[in-house]
Design brief:
eight-stranded parallel β-barrel, alpha/beta, three-stranded antiparallel beta sheet
């Protein structure tokens, strides 16, 4: 089946053939693609005794370097997902089921990768999703990620559980800024977070709607990961064998969750697992009325993060959302759900002319971005794609991975004849 679709974001005009490959047709299950998620070049890099920043040419290379440099509880927090992690793997594998079909002789001496999403123009149709606890992964944390995003002219998101304050990020960068809001049981905290974003002149708020309770993150249970990290007899060796990480964590700026600590001690001064934090602090009564109230208080660009059905996408339109992130939280919540890309075309067809549709999750290559744009997404975002780089090399790592992905998007657009 072939489909011609126009893309309002980047005028991508190549044909997209939405065809299942031979392995699916022969009945081999979805997990078939796992062996191909690591490229031959990445396997060569991983085989090296020494690996540095210049050896990282793609997201998988950065994943390997992060694995080498982080204590295993921290690495597995980034890398892990819910239950059997089938959905996490599926998020990337789903892109393999679509083939890009180029238009040749199109004259592509210059191309425009920019798009406007959530009210701001960004230089490429890829941005950095909000993620929690970045100071744990590297001492540069959110500051390094924000500066890297500003350098590349794209959106950067911080989490409610960020390790740098809303106010500081607001002062630090002038590039587009997104705040990800978790609805806590403490209504005063929720109100204060939105007001802080107003004062700091953030451009958009994304309300996470898929975290009523925590997913079952069994890697964290096995490794004993907490926020802040708690060194116990069982984990001492894991931290002691990564002295560079340990020294930076112990002797640089004190770990905290500044947006929360005036209301909640858990996670800043009291170590707690993320699963227990979500289950004890977040409000399971959150509903569509709650989302509408947040939108009304905020009054600006408002995104729902975690939409995974046409019906919910239409309800997002009804309550006045200006964007949705088609996302399953990187496979960290409901294992067994579909991948964002699996849903993307039908959601874009239903509401793409009414709000910005963003594909969030599983992106590892520029070609994945092109496939998402081809079926109507306004932009694409991801978390692990830059967290591995942050963990591996701080701000320079994030800049390198953004450069790699930007080059892949540009090269792919030219090869597609855009």
């Amino acid at each position: 089946m072939r489909a011609q679709r126009s893309n309002p974001a980047s005028a991508l005009t190549g044909l997209l053939r939405c065809a299942r490959n031979d392995e699916i047709e022969s009945g081999i299950p979805a997990q078939r693609s796992q062996s191909r998620m690591t490229s031959p070049a990445s396997r060569l890099a991983a085989a090296k005794w020494f690996m540095g920043l210049n050896d990282c040419n793609n997201v998988e290379d950065f994943r390997e370097l992060a694995r080498r440099r982080l204590p295993y509880p921290v690495f597995n927090y980034i890398d892990g997902a819910a239950d059997d992690e089938i959905t996490k793997d599926r998020n990337t594998a789903a892109f393999e089921e679509c083939d890009l079909v180029p238009d040749v002789l199109a004259g592509v001496d210059s191309i425009d990768m920019s798009t406007t999403v959530m009210g701001r123009k960004i230089a490429m149709p890829l941005f950095l999703s909000p993620t929690a606890l970045q100071r744990i992964f590297h001492w540069h944390g959110e500051r390094g990620v924000a500066r890297a995003a500003e350098k590349f002219g794209t959106y950067f998101g911080i989490s409610s559980l960020s390790t740098v304050s809303i106010e500081e990020i607001g002062r630090m960068v002038s590039s587009p800024k997104l705040f990800q809001l978790y609805i806590h049981k403490d209504k005063g905290l929720n109100h204060a977070l939105v007001e802080a974003c107003k004062a700091a002149k953030f451009d958009a708020i994304a309300l996470t709607v898929d975290t009523i309770v925590s997913g079952n993150r069994e890697r964290c249970k096995q490794t004993g990961f907490t926020t802040p990290p708690k060194i116990t007899p069982a984990t001492f060796v894991a931290y002691a064998t990564k002295p560079a990480w340990a020294l930076n964590f112990l002797f640089r700026e004190r770990f905290s969750l500044p947006n929360l600590e005036s209301h909640v001690s858990a996670g800043s001064s009291e170590p707690i697992s993320i699963q227990n934090y979500f289950n004890s602090q977040l409000d399971p009564a959150m509903d569509w009325k709650t989302a509408e109230q947040v939108r009304a208080q905020w009054g600006g660009e408002f995104c729902l993060k975690g939409i995974m059905s046409v019906a919910d996408a239409k309800r997002a339109v009804d309550i006045g959302a200006t964007a949705i992130m088609v996302s399953n939280h990187g496979g960290r919540q409901l294992d067994g759900s579909r991948a964002p890309f699996d849903h993307l075309a039908e959601i874009c067809d239903a509401v793409g002319d009414k709000l910005d549709v963003i594909c969030d999750g599983g992106v590892r290559r520029g070609s994945h971005v092109l496939k998402a744009l081809s079926v109507g997404a306004k932009a694409v975002s991801g978390g692990r794609l830059y967290l591995y780089a942050l963990a591996a090399a701080g701000q320079p790592g994030v800049e390198r991975t953004l450069g790699n992905l930007r080059d892949e998007i540009e090269r792919g657009m030219k090869l597609m004849g855009v």
